[in-house]
Amino acid sequence: MNEKITVWRPAELADIRVIYDIQCIAHALQPEAHDVLLERLTLCPQGCFVLERGGVVSGYVLSHPWIRRAPPPIDTQLGAIPVKADIWYLHDLALLPGTRGSGAGATVSALLAEQARRAGYRTLALVSVSGSQGFWERQGFSVRMDDALAATLESYGGQAVYMERDLPCRGN
Question: DSSP string of the chain?
Answer without folding.
Answer: --TT-EEEEE--GGGHHHHHHHHHHHTTTSPPPHHHHHHHHHH-GGGEEEEEETTEEEEEEEEEEE-TT-PPPTT---SS--TT--EEEEEEEEE-GGGTTSSHHHHHHHHHHHHHHHTT--EEEEEE-TT-HHHHHHTT-EE---HHHHHHGGGG-TT-EEEEEE-PPTT-
